[in-house]
Amino acid sequence: MAILSKIRDRSMFLILIVGLALFAFVLDPTSIQNFFSSSKINSIGAVNGEDIDREEFARQVETYRSQSGGRTSQMQAVNTVWNSMMSEKIFANQLEEAGIVVGEKDIWDAMVALPNIQNSPLFKNEANLFDEEKLKEYIANLQADAQDGDDAAWLNWLETEKNIKLNLQRQAYTSLVTAGLGTSLKEGERDYFYNNTKMDAQYVYVPYTSIADSLAKITKGDLKDYIANNAKKYKAEATRSLQFIKFDIEPSESDEAEVKAMVESYINDREEYSNAAKATVQISGLKSATNYVEFLNDNKSDLSIDNGYKFKSQVSTDIADNVFNADLNNVVGPYKQAGHYKISKVVESIKLPDSVKSSHILVPFVGATRSTSTKTVEEAKKTADSIFSLVRYNKSKFTEIADEINTDGTKGKGGDIGWVRKDQAFSAGFDKDFADFIYKNKTGSIKVVKTAFGFHIIRIDNQTKYQEAVRLATFARLIEASEETENTIFENAETLAADLADGKTLIDLAKEKDYKIQYGLNLKVLEENVPGLNAQRQIVKWAFDSETEVNDSKRFDVDINGKRGYAVVIVTEKANESDVELNSSIINQVRPILINKKKAELIKAKMEGSTLEEIATNNTTVVRKTSSVTLASPLLSGVGNEPAIVGAMSTLAVDNTSDLIEGVKGVFILKVTKREDPVALDNYENYRKKLAGQLKGRTYQLNEVLKEATDIIDNRAKFF
Fold first, then answer.
1. What angle (nearest 5°) sits at the alpha carbon of residue 672, between those of residues 669 and 675?
2. Closest C-alpha to 719, from 32, 55, 70
3. pLDDT for residue 17
4. Of the given ranges (16-20, 391-395, 428-432, 507-511), which has the lowest mean pLDDT?
5. How far apart are CA 639 and CA 607, in angstroms?
6. In this predicted structure, what is the pLDDT of residue 178?
7. Distances (CA, A) of 437 to 36, 311, 356, 704
8. How far is the first Cα of the chain from the last one, in angstroms, to the nearest whole number?
9. Which pTM was predicted?
10. Rounded Cα gap, residues 542 and 515, in angstroms
11. How far is it, in rounded angstroms, from Cα 457 to Cα 449?
12. What's the CA gap between 630 and 641, in Å, rounded?
């Protein structure tokens, strides 16, 4: 009883303990840690100690994706917004330190100077001149609409003002930095001699390629030591390398055969039992269907109706002969094309030109597209008929009236529409009646045709060579994997994943099953694309998860441009930012350098002799010559760019022989035979100005320089 009494007395304490235990069961340790640190949960990162709110960041990402019309992936939007935000905050800190302030008047003056503001009809007065008062009125109306709940335009305007302010601030800061960049006359003098001192030399060159790579042994310790000694150059970056097997969900041969047979069954009439009629009914096939549009809709063709006319060259070569030899209303197929099985009925055969050149006179009416006319439909038709009577047999009159009354792009061109291709004319965006007239009548024909734009008096001016064309009614069914096939593919992927989990190797399993291994090498933490799988952020996130180790594997559902499948992925390499890890990317950069250094030691040991000639003979080569070499252009003919060698020339006395020097392509020993110094100038101002201009031209690097000097915490990978 005493124990029960104590439990009752401490019930709240026990509830708290149990609650935390359950929480710990649901959440991983990292999540628990973050739970007690709201700043970590709500911060996507920080700049010089200033947190960036995660929710605000996410809103900006979604806004950016929305503005891009969905053409950017989530990670593309994340990276764009992050870079923009970083730049903004870094500059904000610099502006504060520099005491740079941009006032409201500065922003306003910059805004009214914008060409799109100056030239907008919205802000022009009766004299067609820009009017600031109209701009102010426009802004006031936007603000009023925002107060009434319609704030989209107002928010866009505020964003415009913000961008103008940022640009002004950056311009001011850049100007300040640029003003502090300069060069001295001494630097100008040095640049003059740097560019104009010419040297001739003799040299012996033994290339690194003369030594086999196998003789230059590089150890893991050599690589680590070199990377550690050049840590700034080879700054470690967290990477993951993967291997994977991709399983595409594709139809089997039996799936294809089934779809083909089904499509074939739609050609002729067939009998089917109708539940509604409770009897067997006759179903019309495509061949006998009198209304092919209705047929395709009723039978739910997987491709939309195409009413365009096709020349023989535009029909698949597999069926072109059959189509153009077929009688009207005959059906061709089934045939396989673009992932579908199809049957096509010839519903029309006609001779058409490939292109037509035409002119028009347009008489719009009230309510017509882009019309400002006050004419009723009846009045416009009467006007068009009257014009038709005037221009029917008078070409010059046609041109005169077209230039007088047309308001579209044909004004001043005599109504000339230009050439219209057949495929363009019979596309969904072109008026059918207009297309029918210009393509189904001869050159010189003229007629009044009504469209959404009004009444057109159309004249056919020219046509290309006529060819036979057909119009096809095509029923199509997509060739898809059956449920049975999908299940088999899934089972294969699952089996592979299970075998890897049991300790089997991917190489052995791939050989056994005849699978193709694909690779994703040196993926970075914020990447979303895996080569061969496209955008698969889920895989990259898993690979970088703190719980994922080398040789861990997992099956993923993947979708590549609408094509579903599975990927069984294994982590093969893990390099962390904090370690001097030998990931393949860094190895590929460092190994050639170290190999050449080892080769240089071997070459130096053989380059013995008291003269260049003797050294050349001992190494089965010759003494080479180079002339008019400058430090500004350190090129050796027949060798290439060798700055270290030319640099040694500049410090070597004439007729003196250098020590052995390691160059880019091999080991050198040289003797300067001539040095031609330029004539000294009275003043080196022009060269100083040139250097100053080059220096100021590098202000584009300012953002990156400031970024390197800024304390940035980046937590993007934890949330995206």
1. 155
2. 55
3. 32
4. 16-20
5. 18
6. 72
7. 76, 19, 11, 62
8. 54
9. 0.64
10. 23
11. 6
12. 12
C-alpha–C-alpha distance, residues 62 and 616, integer Å: 68
CA atoms within 13 A on the CB side of 472: 25
Would you call the peptide bond into 334 cis, given omega within 30 degrees of 0 as the criterion? yes
Residue 473 region by backbone torsions, left for phi larger than 0, else alpha for psi between -120 and 50, else beta: beta
How far is residue 241's CA from residue 519's CA, in Å, rounded to a whole number? Answer: 8
How far is Cα of residue 234 from the mean position of the Cα atoms in its chain?
Answer: 28
> What is the average pLDDT value for the chain, to the nearest integer?
86
Q: Which residues contact 591 (CB under 8 A, 6 or more apart)?
A: 218, 223
Give which of 542, 516, 517 is closest to 527, Cα–Cα: 542
Burial class from Cβ neighbours inside 10 Å (0-12, 13-18, 19+) for residue 620 reads: exposed
Please write the tens of the pLDDT for every residue from 446-460. 999 999 999 999 999
Enclosing H/E stretch for 454: strand 454-463
Q: How far is CA 355 from CA 428, 439, 461, in A?
A: 17, 8, 11
- pLDDT for 163: 83
Of the candidates 520, 535, 531, which has an alpha carbon nearest to the alpha carbon of residue 720? 535
Of 329, 334, 332, the residue nearest 287 (C-alpha): 329
Report the C-alpha gap between 360 and 454 in whole angstroms.
11
CA atoms of 386 and 614, how far apart (whole Å) = 103
Considering just the CA atoms, what is the radius of gyration of the chain in Å?
39
Residue 282 and residue 263: Cα distance in Å, rounded? Answer: 17
**Can you read off the two tokens belonging to residue 110?**
């910059």
- Say yes or no to pLDDT of 712 above 90: no
CB 323 within 8 A of CB 344: yes
Q: How far apart are the C-alpha atoms of 398 and 406, rounded to whole Å?
A: 11
Residue type, 572: T
Is 331 in contact with 267 (CB distance < 8 Å)?
Answer: yes
- Residue range 550-570: average pLDDT? 93
- Burial bucket for residue 199 (CB in 10 Å: 0-12, 13-18, 19+): buried
Residues in the chain: 720
From residue 553, how far is each of 99, 243, 371, 506 by CA, in Å?
55, 9, 65, 10
Cα–Cα distance for residue pair 636/288, rounded to 1 Å: 81
Q: Name the DSSP letter for residue 335.
A: E
Q: What are the φ/ψ torsions at residue 353 (nearest 5 degrees)?
A: -75, 160
Residue 341: count of CB within 10 angstroms of its CB: 24
230-289 per-position pLDDT tens digit: 877 777 678 899 999 999 999 999 999 999 999 999 999 988 877 877 788 888 999 999
Phi then psi dihedrals of residue 245, to 5 deg:
-115, 130
Question: Helices 395-405 & 377-391, crossing angle to 10 degrees?
Answer: 150
Q: Which residue shows structure tokens 């002969």?
A: 321
Cβ pair 703, 83 in contact under 8 A: no
Number of H helices, E strands in the chain: 28, 25
CB-based burial, 443-468: b 16+ in 10 Å, e otherwise: eeebebbbbebbbbbbbbbebeeeee
